[in-house]
Amino acid sequence: MDPEEFRKRGKQMIDYVADYLENIRDRRPYPEVEPGYIKELLPDHAPNKPDKWDDVFSDIERVIMPGVTHWHSPQFHAYFSTGNSYPAIVADILSDAIGCIGFSWASSPACTELEMVVMDWLGKMLDLPQDFLFCSGGKGGGVIQGTASEATLVALLSARTKMIRKLLETGDYKDQGQIMPKLIAYCSDQSHSSVEKLVCATLGTTPSCAFDNILEYAMSFNFNPHKWLMVNFDCSAMWVKDSQLVSDAFNVDPLYLKHDHQGKIPDYRHWHIPLGRRFRSLKLWFVLRLFGQEGLQENIRKDVRLAHEFEDLVKTDHNFEIIGEVKMGLACFRLKGENDRNEMLLKAINEDGRIHLVPSKFRDIYFLRFAVCASRTTSDDVKFAWKVIQELSRKYLSDSSNENIQNKSS
């Protein structure tokens, strides 16, 4: 593919992406394929000679789309939202073209310095304590991790390193092998699965969007712009009050990575697990500039309004109940009664295919989660989802009632 062919095919793909996103409402949110479906559609070996572009392009709909779960469909209400916007997509194109591996300032100064700026912008938008920001002049600062799971592991390993060194200094232990088995971490029983063995308080838990009490004594803070800030995956923002605690745990400093400005500015390879890193701050920068704080705030407020609208609809039906308090873009609900009723209802909803939900549990109570996931979701989509849920629940309740009558008769 030469430059002219790239221009032509790139424009074709941009048109395809725009058409896909603007018409995504017409696609079934969850695929109907069975495991191994792609193997039946493709040869068992790579082509010896180049395929034609038109053949590759046509296989997007033939091979890929039948197996895609459409996270940005207004009928997708599972998990939590995942960010998506045209500015972020355009920024990713530029990031991929630049193709730098920004492990240090010297490897691409703009990659490091833009990340420092936008992480301070974002920290100020969240009203984080000054200690977490580069501009405070202290040891704090922010870094873009790939996922919150990575950020949590970074925080845990940093805390572990700090505690091991502290205990070794007391002279009570000979080596870290004596200390490791004694270390204990705590987290909420509603914390994300990736932190089941970590020290973690959570604002908006995954199962039910519950909130732990967060104090300013926290040494690190993490959230995902790739969930609610219109930024495409992956972009997980992490701030620390003392970056030295992180670099002490992850310092990798071979001669070939050293540079003349070392120590004057962060080398992000010391702030996370991988050595290499993408120019992810570009998409955050594009989004913050092209939406502005007010545009992002309005999108969040819209999703919260829609979650409350769904909550109000649930409360009109005496067969259902709301679980927990609706605070953000998630409403948890269930059919009153035993868990198996709700398991059957969820199965019926996802087999029906018009909308897609996932369940959760809290203290052995099984419930369904209705998350406002897509930026294109409207009030009509919420009403449509509730109509589907009611239709299928009534059918299930009717079938169950008939079955009970038949059992009594027999």
Descriptive keywords:
7 strands; 4-stranded antiparallel sheet; alpha+beta; single chain; globular; 3-stranded antiparallel sheet; 44% helix; 410 residues
The largest β sheet comes out as: 4 strands, antiparallel
> Approximately how much helix is present in the residues?
40-55%
* Oligomeric organization of the protein chains: single chain
Strand content: 5-15%
Uncertain ranges: none
Radius of gyration: 25 Å
Helix count, DSSP H or I runs of 4 or more residues? 11
Order of helices and strands: HHHHEHHEHEHHEEHEEH
How would the global form be characterised?
A: globular
Distance between the termini: 72 Å
Describe the structure.
A hairpin with a 2-residue loop joins strand 6 (358-362) and strand 7 (365-371). The protein has a four-stranded antiparallel beta sheet. The chain has a three-stranded antiparallel beta sheet with strand order 1-3-2, sandwiched between helices. It contains eleven helices and seven strands. Helix content is 44%, strand content 9%. It is of the alpha+beta class. Helix 3 (86-98) runs antiparallel to helix 9 (281-315), helix 9 crosses helix 11 and helix 10 packs across helix 11. Pfam families: Pyridoxal_deC. Its cofactor is pyridoxal 5'-phosphate. Homodimer. The modification N6-(pyridoxal phosphate)lysine is found at residue 227. GO terms for molecular function: aromatic-L-amino-acid decarboxylase activity; pyridoxal phosphate binding.
